[in-house]
Amino acid sequence: MDKGARGARAAAHAFEVKFYAAGQLPAGIRGSLRDLVDENMTGYPSFEVVGDSNHLASDDMLFFTCGGHGTLPLLGFAAFKLEVVEDTTLVVYIYELQVRAGVQGQGLGSRLLLYVEQWSAEQHERQPRALMLTVHRSNARARKFYWKSGFKKSMLSPGYKAAYRILEKELRHGQKTKQRAGVV
Ligand SMILES: CC(C)(COP(=O)(O)OP(=O)(O)OC[C@H]1O[C@@H](n2cnc3c(N)ncnc32)[C@H](O)[C@@H]1OP(=O)(O)O)[C@@H](O)C(=O)NCCC(=O)NCCS
What domain count does the chain have? Predict the structure, then answer.
């Protein structure tokens, strides 16, 4: 096999995405989750306000992961779970969406988000109403990413002076989300 073909195969493997419930996470991946969050998020002035990676150890957390097997580092992951907000509304809360710096901007974040959305749309019995997440106000790149992915500011989001925003995207079958340039 020539070098190019090997490279292409390596890239395809690198972007293979797997689903795990918390109890099934391979130890190697479990150990890398926190490191990737720290690498990506440390330095945000508001990190202490909304940044707490203990949720990654939660028994009911679900994961889509990419990499983290053998010698391949963890390239990215989404951590999410079904959660009741405002006492009655079931949503899928995305606790983390993290892509390693070296592979950002290559579509992995969009893919992880799409998989979470597809998983959510398949929960026919419980029918979660929306995807929801928290983003740092100063994380302009992530806010732009979420805006382009169809998220808007949630009614539950605190006032504009707060260090973070709560965003949501309604889960509706068969409806296309309008996407505009900007940030949420
Ligand atoms: C936010 C994040 C998850 C996006 O994942 P990604 O794999 O980099 O994003 P994608 O390659 O799927 O890009 C989708 C969009 O993101 C934006 N984006 C990606 N790379 C970008 C860059 N270098 N500069 C500005 N915007 C960029 C673009 O709007 C892009 O849309 P386009 O394809 O039309 O250009 C990723 O950048 C990340 O992990 N950042 C650090 C951790 C973080 O902030 N997580 C969110 C916490 S709430």
Answer: 1
CB 105 near ligand 1, within 6 Å: yes
Q: Which of 30, 34, 6 is nearest to 20 (CA)?
A: 30
Q: Which domain holds residue 39?
A: 3-170
Residue 53 DSSP label: G
Q: Would you say residue 101 lies in a domain?
A: yes
| Ligand 1 close to Cβ of residue 138 (< 6 A) | no
User: Is 91 in contact with 128 (CB distance < 8 Å)?
Assistant: yes
pLDDT digits (tens, 9 = 90+) for 130-148: 999 999 999 999 999 999 9
Residue 181 covered by a domain = no
176 domain residue, yes or no: no
Report pLDDT for 5. Answer: 44
Q: Among 41, 141, 164, 169, which is best to mutate for testing ligand 1, by the most ligand atoms less than 8 A from CB? A: 141
Read off the pLDDT band of 47 (50, 70, 90): very low
- Is residue 135 in contact with ligand 1, taking CB distance under 6 Å? yes
